[in-house]
Specification:
Largest sheet: none
Low-confidence stretches: 1-23
Number of helices: 22
Number of domains: 2
Number of strands: 0
Structural class: mainly alpha
Shape: globular
Helix content: over 70%
């Protein structure tokens, strides 16, 4: 059909004197649009990179001034208690001792990243700043492509650029920055690939998700969620063209995409699990999930059940210390085999308290502002401590608004579609549903642990910002449609400027 249309246009160009070339005009518009988007991307990237490099440089300078005891405490500067778990296998990789880098707890992804950078803190923080600067770019692309409004996308990208968590998270030797960047890329790719029915973009997303699982195994269930996300968007997309009765009738090309989204990352998981089985005797990508479940969620649920009310932090901490002391006598393999059965037994004994603990921990992670300024910038507390506190509180308040928005966004979108059932509205609503589903996936898994601050759910921040911007576009279109119906004699305005 498109080929016939193009032939018709070219024929008419030969017969219509003084007429502009429709094809060339269209191509020019596309080139101009691409150039604008490229400029926006470059501006966002450079602005974001400058903020993150500046913060990282200050963190490095203050760490160098710390006493030797603080530098080796893993409680100050860019080092945390989890940093050795990544640095030790990274050093083993650098020495060529690959077998020593195979760990049941930490997959190979982030240690390999550190090894490529020579485990140098300056290079690591700079590389993480560079990668994190891609998140505002992905935010812009998501919003601008979906809403067809570059200015709205640029505003969303700016919000992402100045995110306190987004700026500070890259100045830690932790997997969070690398993982968040990879997730932003893979999610943008899956949305774009599904909307454009492009197997290449879907394959790219699947490969990045497989690599991301080896960075942080929180994505172990992502292949299932990815298929649901793509099917959700495809259902709306195809339904808007062929009727809603095709909601779950995915055509052959779509089925291929679902297959790729599920099985490509599964290959990465199975491969690394086999490596772990050969080296450590357990077929798993990582046992960190089982350990976290037992040490955090199960411990809190147990204390909640015994106390009959929300337990104090001191009580939970004491329970954890007793558990860790008991596990000191076990091998890592015995610990892995012990954690899950014990957790399940506690969950069965205290089911209500387990749910309460999960929700309580998920809300704690999702609603908090960045809480590590004092750790990263210890010498700035006297002058800027109040400022850091206000920034953290502001971020916390915005996250509360974002949580409510994420929960209600799909339903607001459905109302807007009833008002204006256009393909444009359906496309936005489909992605709103997909974003809320993905957001709930992260929030639910964050409930397995506590006391981590917002870093564990920071990868989902791109979803919150993009959803807010898309809601603006949805509501503006719906309101404009209502006004147009009330004043049928008036000419309708052109599409919003880009």
């Amino acid at each position: 059909m498109s080929g016939n249309l193009l032939t018709y246009i070219r024929t008419r160009e030969l017969t219509l004197p003084h007429s502009a070339s429709v094809v060339e005009t269209t191509r020019f518009k596309f080139r101009k649009e691409d150039s604008r988007r490229l400029i926006y991307c470059i501006l966002l990237f450079l602005f974001s990179l400058g903020l993150r490099l500046l913060y990282g440089n200050i963190v490095l300078e203050q760490f160098a001034e710390l006493p030797a005891a603080d530098q080796t405490s893993y409680e100050m500067g860019y080092l945390t208690n989890d940093s050795p778990g990544y640095l030790e296998p990274a050093v083993a990789l650098m020495k060529g001792h690959i077998a020593q880098a195979v760990s049941l707890i930490r997959p190979i992804g982030y240690p390999a990243f550190l090894a490529l950078l020579g485990a140098n803190p300056t290079a690591t923080l700079a590389a993480q700043a560079l990668l994190l600067s891609l998140i505002p770019v992905c935010t812009f692309l998501l919003v601008s492509v979906l809403t067809e409004k570059n200015l709205l996308g640029f505003a969303a990208g700016l919000v992402s650029s100045i995110s306190p968590s987004g700026i500070a998270i890259g100045s830690l030797v932790m997997s969070d920055a690398l993982f968040a960047s990879m997730f932003a890329i893979l999610f943008t790719a899956i949305v774009y690939g599904t909307l454009r029915n492009s197997l290449s973009w879907i394959l790219f997303s699947a490969i990045v998700s497989g690599l991301a699982i080896l960075v942080r195994p929180i994505l172990l269930f992502w292949p299932v969620v990815a298929v649901m996300v793509s099917a959700l968007i495809a259902g709306f997309q195809d339904g808007s063209q062929n009727g809603l009765w095709r909601w779950l009738q995915i055509d052959k090309s779509r089925r291929t995409q679902m297959f790729v989204l599920f099985f490509v990352p599964a290959v990465f998981m199975i491969s690394w699990a086999e490596v772990n089985h050969a080296e450590n005797g357990i077929f798993t990508v990582s046992i960190i999930g089982n350990l976290t479940l037992r040490e955090y969620l199960a411990t809190k649920a147990e204390e909640w059940g015994m106390a009959g009310h929300r337990p104090s932090d001191a009580a939970v901490k004491q329970n954890q210390n007793m558990l860790r002391k008991r596990f000191e006598t076990l091998t890592i393999q015995q610990e892995a085999q012990t954690c899950l059965p014990e957790s399940i037994a506690i969950f069965k004994k205290y089911p209500t308290q387990t749910i309460k603990s999960l929700v309580d921990d998920a809300l704690e992670s999702s609603l908090g502002g960045w809480n590590l300024f004092s750790r990263q910038l210890p010498f700035s507390q006297q002058q800027l401590g109040i400022v850091f506190s206000k920034i953290s509180n502001l971020e916390s308040r915005l996250r509360k608004i974002a949580l409510l928005m994420m929960l209600f966004a799909p339903f607001i979108g459905l109302v807007a579609v009833r008002v204006n059932p256009s393909p444009y509205e359906r496309r936005l609503v489909s992605v709103l549903f997909a974003m809320t589903l993905t957001f709930l996936f992260f929030v639910t898994l964050s409930g397995m642990t506590f006391w981590t601050g917002p870093r564990i759910v920071y990868p989902a921040e791109i979803l919150e910002i993009s959803t807010a911007a898309m809601l603006v576009a949805v509501l503006v279109k719906a309101i404009g449609h209502l006004r147009g119906r009330r004043r049928p004699g008036e000419s309708r305005p052109n599409a919003a400027d880009r």
